[in-house]
Each structure stands twice: as structure tokens, then as C-alpha cells.
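Q: What would this chain look like folded?
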Amino acid sequence: MKKYFLIVLILQLALVSCDPDDAVYSDGNFVAFTDANRSVITALDIDDNFTLDVSIALPVNNETTINLDVEDGTAALGTNFNLPSTVTIPAGETRVTVQGTLLQSDGGNDEEDENVISFSVSLGENTANLPVGIGDAGSRTKTVNIVQVSNCPTPFYEWVGDLNVEDVGEGTSSGTGNLNAGFDCDVLIVDNNLPGIASPSNTNYQLIFTPGPGGSESGTVEIDPTVAREDIELQSGEVVDGVYEGFGFYDSTTGEITINYVFNAVLDGEVLGAFWEGTNVITLVD
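A: My prediction, written as C-alpha cells:
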């Protein structure tokens, strides 16, 4: 058990419950990409394919064929990827998934210093003559970023997806692993309460991977000091931040990231002491 007797935490949690709003469209039928508010999707070049979901607001009696208009960017159709030119929604149905294929190319756009290449795909005309899209641009056009993680020094991308995060001796919880906003090599963003404390202020931690001397399959992982919870009141009356930092190792053969961490009390940049120490073991959900 963590040594909670070291401090008294005065936790003020605001719980807000609300029902999701149902979108109601009164302007007739239309076709669109799903996840309309997401105009950019990400694919990794180590994967074989990527998917796009296309939907029709209301089912119709005949199948609806929709053109997919591709605009090459730094990624080129037939060189870096393949994608069908049309998609068909069967009669009476409202959604279909289009599968694109990622290609391995020997030159051109996949240089080591260019870790992201991209293209866009838009919905064109359809056989039902329905309007295309709604207010969100992502309902009509998607930009697809192909992140060339195969060029990166470490296999950090193997932990992108749903994760199991064990706080050794305290239990296991769910998390996710993601690329950072810049799609940088060897940087994994883990979304989880790593120090094991309810945190309304932050659950995102940046893991920096460094290959070991024996090669890229194993190496070190570092997490810089990260505020996990603000405004923790001590028995002394001081109000501090709870700051997580850790150092450990990754092993792509076992699929484990092991982080030895310390959860510190920090006041104005000064570490007053440790609330507790622990170990996180992170694995990808099978």
C-alpha cells in the first residue's frame, strides 16, 4: 500500500454528468465521412492498411455508389498507397468501411528526414444525387498522414494502441498509447493515471525512447517531471503539486515497458519530498 499517512490529501472532485446530445438533421439525406469533426487521420507505414468510414444519413432503397477523389500530396497514389476510386453503400444500409493499402516504396517520398507524408481524399458525386457532407470539413475531406515510423531508431510505435498499465502492488488499469502532435520519432504519449492518483489536471505522459547499445529492440525510457495533480494540501498547510517522473526500460521482444517512478511534492519548483515511489509495467492489449 502507498504510504498515504505521509500527507493528507484534500481532494475536491467535481463530477459532472450529462447525456450526449443527439444530432438531428432536418435538411434531408446526405452522404459523409463519419467522425466529421476529425479532418486528419493517421496511419503507420508498418501497417498493411488503413480505413475510412463512409455513411449515408438515411437508408435508401437502392445501392449508392460514391466517388472517392484522391489528391496526392507528399504521398502518391500507386507509390505510397492504393485506394479504391469508388465506394458502394448497399441498399437499406447506412455505413461502409473503405480499406486502403499502404505500399512499401524504395525511393521518392520516404526519405529518413521526412517522417510524415500525406494525401487527401474527398467524397465526390454519388448515384443517389445526395448532398455531400455537413458543416464540418472532415465530413467531406480527410487528410491521411502516413507516419514513417519504420525510419525511427526505436520501435516505440509497438505500444501505440490500447494498453494495460500495472502499478505494481496496486493493480492494473486501462490506457492508450499515441504518437505526439508532431509525430516525432521515439516519443510515445501514454494516457493513464500512471502515479495511481485521481487526476483531473493531467493523464498524459511523454515517454522518450533511446535505443540500447545492443540495438533497437531494447533500450531506455525516460519520463520528465510531469504535474499529475495540482493543489494538494499537506498537513503543514502548504499547497503543492504532485509531480511524476520516471526512468526505465523497454523490450520489444517481451512487449514490456518498465518504469521506476517517484511521485514528488513540489512547491515553486522545489521538491519537498516524495509522496511515494512505484513501478509501472506497460503492455499492449492483445
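The radius of gyration is 24 Å.
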